[in-house]
Design brief:
The protein has 14 helices and 16 strands. A hairpin with a 2-residue loop joins strand 15 and strand 16. The chain is 39% helix and 17% strand. It has 453 residues and is of the alpha/beta class.
Length: 453
């Protein structure tokens, strides 16, 4: 594949100038950023106005699960725009109903009612609201090493440093440690110990907070931005049992892990667990038009049979977004994207990343499944000291900045968070493209190796 535009640096400079003059970027010090001007994208690649092409190992923000510009989804959006561009959410609209049906068919258990939002953070906001109203309780437990969104409740539930500037300390959120054997907070040496001790810690937290005060426990099924830490066998089932014991609503956040990313439609399928509420977004329509939602159990849905649900959004179930979702799900079925993600993880990405770990002293651990992987980069494999300090900036973050620059030099756009790089390409990435990405990572990790002890 080659860029579909003739290189035009002057046009790129104009795009960059307009951006810098008027666009206020998220999570950034505005005067310190230099965003790339993108000219186009297709499949697993995008390119700039200078004609430089990058293999996107970020999938946008881990949402282009079927790649950029899939022609069937583009056509579905165009056809829906010609038919009915928009309509208020209080009405029954064919494409909205069909999107909800297709999603409900794939969710586990009896999560058969779908409340549509514009994205993942709003899905989390509404899931927590439903849990609080259903139980009549207020507290919500969430994990450190998590990310749930940037809206008010969602950012307070988040466990990473992006929360700090907005944390009111009065949102009814209590945080706990979820299992993560590589950096175990429980001094465990096996997955069995980590699971047992993490569940005991969670139940102790509930006991001391007061079970009758807790509305919900929310967990990312497989935490995403925080590090792709696959939970040990039995952990999520154990959380499910604890929730049942105390009448607590169990919420799984599948905004990033859902829709094929882990090699299943939803990551919960790997662990044979059914939550009471499940949030989704991103991969539901590959991010082509903003869409998210909450899949709701029969019991919680029944709470609002005679009692109005006090929440809604102007663009809930927007026809263009739902048309993109219907087309995306159909593409994923027809092209067996979910099965492909599982296979590429088992046969190419997983083995390839583990081989890199054997050769590079900067790779402490490889974690993941499907098209959802993380490399934990370290200064020393024995001590597991992170390559850069927690939440490092400026000069302290120089080793990761050098790694990122090297990856881009070799045609790979990397996902970097703290001391980790994530390999999260499109779920339909080809074997050749995946190997191209691994080769670029190999070269970039040689730069990271220079900072090991």
């Amino acid at each position: 594949m080659t860029p579909h535009v003739v290189p035009d640096p002057q046009a790129g400079a104009a795009v960059k100038a307009a951006d810098r003059a008027h666009v206020f970027h998220s999570w950034s010090a505005q005067g310190l950023i230099d965003p790339l001007a993108v000219a186009g994208a297709e499949g697993a690649y995008f390119w700039d106005y200078d004609g430089n092409r990058y293999l996107d190992f970020t999938s946008g923000l881990v949402y282009t699960n079927i790649g950029y510009q899939h022609p069937r989804v583009v056509a579905a959006i165009q056809e829906q725009a010609a038919k009915l561009t928009t309509f208020a959410p209080a009405f029954a609209i064919d494409v909205r109903s069909e999107a909800a049906r297709l999603i409900a068919e794939r969710t586990p258990g009896d999560l058969d009612k779908i409340f549509f939002t514009n994205g993942g953070a709003e899905a989390v906001e509404n899931a927590v609201r439903m849990a609080r109203l259903h139980t009549g309780r207020h507290k919500v437990l969430s994990a450190f090493r998590s990310y749930h969104g940037a809206t008010s409740t969602a950012i307070n539930l988040t466990g990473d440093p992006r929360r700090w500037a907005s944390d009111t300390g009065s949102a009814g959120v209590v945080r706990f440690w979820a299992p993560f054997l590589y950096r175990s907070p429980f001094y465990a040496t096996t997955e069995e110990q980590e699971c047992e001790r993490a569940l005991a810690h969670l139940e102790d937290t509930i006991a001391f907070e007061g079970p009758a005060t807790i509305a919900a426990i929310i967990l990312e099924t497989v935490p995403g931005t925080a590090g792709i830490m696959t939970p040990p066998p039995g952990y999520l089932a154990g959380v499910r049992a604890i929730c049942d014991k105390y009448g607590i609503v169990f919420v799984l956040d599948e905004v990033m892990a859902g829709f094929g990313r882990t090699g299943k439609w939803f990551a919960a399928e790997h662990f044979d667990v059914v939550p009471d509420l499940m949030t989704f977004a991103k991969g539901v329509n590959s991010g082509y038009v903003p869409l998210g939602g909450v899949a709701i159990s029969a019991e919680i849905a029944a709470t609002f049979d005679k009692r109005p649900y006090p929440g809604g959004l102007t663009y809930s179930g927007h026809p263009l977004a739902c048309a993109a979702a219907v087309a995306t799900i159909q593409v994923m079925e027809d092209e067996k994207v979910v099965e492909h993600a599982a296979r590429i993880g088992e046969t190419v990405l997983g083995p390839g990343l583990r081989e890199l770990a054997e050769r590079h002293p900067s790779v402490g651990e490889v974690r993941g499944m499907g098209a959802f992987w993380a490399l934990d980069l370290v200064r020393n494999k024995e001590t597991r000291e992170p390559l850069v300090p927690y939440n490092a900036t400026g000069e302290a973050n120089a080793p990761m900045a050098a790694f990122g620059a090297a990856a881009k030099k070799h045609g790979l756009w990397p996902f970097i968070n703290m001391n980790r790089t994530h390999a999260v390409p499109a779920c339909n990435v080809s074997e050749a493209e995946a190997k191209e990405g691994l080769a670029a990572l190999d070269a970039a990790l040689s730069v990271a190796d220079e900072h090991t002890a």
